[in-house]
Amino acid sequence: MSHIHSTINTPDRERGKHLSFEDRCSIKICRKCGFSLRKTADLINCSASTVSNELKRGTGERKGDRGRYPEYSAKRGQKAYEANRSRCGRKYSVSAENPFIVWVIEQVRKNKWSLDACVGYARKHRLFKDELMVCSKTLYNAVWEGIILSPFDLPEALSRNTRKHKQRKNKRIYGTSIDERPAKIAAREECGHWEIDTVVGRKAGRESVVLTLVEKVTDFYIAIKIPGKTSEAVLAAMEVLREEYGEEYFHKAFKTITADNGCEFEGLSALEEYGVKVFYAHPYSSWERPQNERHNRIFRRYIPKGISIENYSAEQILAFADDMNALPRKILGYATPEELFDIFLDQVYSVDKVHGDLTTSGVQFEIAI
Hints:
By secondary structure, this protein is of the alpha/beta class. The protein has three domains: 2-87, no CATH class; 99-158, no CATH class; 176-322, Nucleotidyltransferase, domain 5 (2-Layer Sandwich), CATH 3.30.420. It has 15 helices and eight strands. The strands form two sheets. A six-stranded mixed beta sheet has the order 1-6-5-2-3-4, sandwiched between helices. A hairpin with a 2-residue loop joins β7 (355-360) and β8. α7 (115-124) packs antiparallel against α8 (136-144). The protein is elongated, with a radius of gyration of 32 Å.
């Protein structure tokens, strides 16, 4: 008996786990010694039914009436287990012939949509029958398995950062700190609050850059090519926006702007004379302007890092922003930023209507003008 216990080296086996090849060898030894199913199960630390099922899998069929009955084989049991494992799991309902999958691939490659945007937009507008559609998770699983597309077709999925953020003190104070910014702005409870930043090309500060602004509720994105990363160029672009949206309405469409501590924004507080409140984030705290940073990453799909902004015209830059504003967003109930921003502007320019509700599918934003 002591020889048996020294051979069966599985007393610490965790109960509930699949049998290993060593466990199957132990079962074979126990059967040769004439142990019962329960005694074998106690030694292996599993249930008696597990041993019984394993014996059935690892024992061959008797082909005739003569000869001995087949014995249990650990190798046969392991081979049957591996074959069963290769066939287990839910099968992907993703096929290259599926019209929905074909449409998703086209939207991702041509229009740079995310997989979730494709699913949400198709469901909202009932573009396909329910039996043809799959959820976002299934699509992402198919990408990681190499069934459709490639992870490189989804740049956002490869660049997500989960690091914790540290807050630093402002050494340069250009204006009001973000610490004094009302909480409702971060909570996205009211339209008209913006985040601002610049996107640089190959030579930062020595060639044209792109000035970008994002409205925090509607995710509406503005991209303007400016001659350099300077305070004068930024203020000139903001003056153009003030004329475009109307001098008397500018402070309603742009209630607040949150910027970083870059030298190009040192004169941005001058906008406060028009009724626009300007806040400055802490240094090295891009996470305090999350929407602008996220949208700038999307913008990099059109102008990758290291490519000169000089290669693109002002009209091309505007067209890139238009494409982004036509992208359905999950957070907007799969509406597009341009749809919601147009509603906001209609209320800004309305003389009679002072308050209104901006409602999307399952998402509602209250606008206070």
